[in-house]
Amino acid sequence: MIIKENLLHSVGATVKQYKSSEIIFREGDPATYYYQIVTGEVKLNNYSDEGKEIIQTLLEDGQSIGESLLFMDKLYPINAIAITNCKVLRLPKSNFFDLLKQYPDICLDMNRLLSQRLYFKLIMAQNLSTQNPTAKLRVLMDYLKSSQEEQAPYSFMIPLTRQQMASLTGLCVETAIRTIKTMERNKIVQIKDRKILY
DNA sequence: TCATTAAAGTTAT
DNA sequence: ATAACTTTAATGA
Question: Whole-angstrom Cα distance, residue A158 to residue A143?
């Protein structure tokens, strides 16, 4: 969790509930709030020319949503959509900045978080242009797995659907599925009742 | 090689 | 029950 909940409450944050598939903000909206997920999952996405969904990031408990836009005078370039029922804390932009001025530690944490987001984007950017499907999926899985301690083979259960993996890598689902199958044959992953172990 | 289309089976709500 | 996800196969760029 990036900012403590009590602290957010004490400076004016309010709780907002979103139902699954409800839109939190959409492309083109101005950024007026700092959002932090208490419970639930959220995706940041775009839709390509002919309707294909491109997922930019998946977010879960404790993470903030679209925070980078608060530091700029730009409109959101992405949609934020709840993918489960969500409880989210919302803090008006000006209160958020007061908070940052008051607590240097939070400023530092925010820098860490933004750096982490940037790092993920850099890794995924290289991925999307070149690379065969196996390499793309591997880069994604490597990144996901890097968040856990245990690094032994097959110790990490990919917490994404094949659909989501495809939307994150720009592949079509069928290709993602076929590629994962051949990765299983090549002992790169294991599959246990549809769950991917890496 | 990979996307697209279609069709069918499986899981989750 | 219905929607969402997974899988396989055929076809085409």
Answer: 11
A137 touches strand B (CB under 7 A): no
Chain B bases under 7 Å from protein CB? 1-6, 11
Distance from C-alpha of A131 to C-alpha of A128, rounded to nearest angstrom:
7
Say what the pTM is. Answer: 0.91
- Strand C: which bases are under 7 Å from protein Cβ? 4-10
Pairing of strands A190-192, A195-197: antiparallel
Instruction: Characterise A146 by phi-psi region: left (phi > 0), alpha (psi -120 to 50), beta (else).
Output: alpha
Q: pLDDT tens-digit profile of A112-142?
A: 999 999 999 999 999 888 889 999 999 999 9
Query: In A 53-82, which Cβ lie closer than 7 Å to strand B?
Result: none
Burial of A189 (0-12, 13-18, 19+ CB in 10 A): buried
